[in-house]
Design a protein that fits this description.
- The chain is mostly helical and 139 residues long.
- Helix content is 65%, strand content 0%.
- The chain has a single domain, classed as Tetratricopeptide repeat domain (Serine Threonine Protein Phosphatase 5, Tetratricopeptide repeat, Alpha Horseshoe), CATH 1.25.40.10.
- α4 (56-69) runs antiparallel to α5 and α5 packs antiparallel against α6.
- It is globular.
- The N and C termini lie far apart (52 Å).
- 27% of the residues are buried.
């Protein structure tokens, strides 16, 4: 028997339509499972979707929600840094970078050399790395 919880991962993938509007699928998932311990991942996914669509202020707001929900998710913190830099919130980006470096003190550009990560687009990756530089990631 299939229930709402079985559909949640599918619904989360359909967050932003091609025209940039929200699909409306996020709200039902949050209503179906308001105490979902993994809701932070949906929020950071929304942030990254807004980021890629060039809506940096909205991206930063979603990143804020994700960080409030789970402040130790390094991948989410990294996306938040990107969102904050592009939204012009450099101080917030530097504060989050300091937190990432506290959690992962050896993280630097030299350690990332050759690492592509989940981002396939070289343009997006370069933009990401530029954001990390502005936020203070050590070389």
């Amino acid at each position: 028997m299939s229930g709402p919880s079985d559909q949640t991962p599918i619904l989360r993938r359909r967050i932003i339509r091609e025209d940039g509007s929200k699909s409306g699928m996020v709200d039902p998932t949050m209503r179906l499972s308001p105490r979902d311990p993994f809701a932070f991942s949906s929020m950071i996914g929304i942030a990254f979707a807004h980021y890629n669509a060039g809506r940096y202020a909205e991206a930063a707001i979603s990143a804020d929600k994700s960080i409030r929900a789970f402040s130790y998710f390094i991948g989410g913190l990294q996306i938040a840094i990107q969102c904050y830099v592009e939204a012009g919130r450099i101080e917030d980006a530097r504060r989050v970078m300091a937190e990432v470096l506290r959690l992962h003190p050896n993280w630097s550009f030299s350690r990332m050399k050759g690492y592509r990560g989940p981002i396939r687009s070289p343009e997006v990756r370069e933009k990401q790395w530029a954001s990390f530089r502005k936020a203070g990631l050590p070389e």
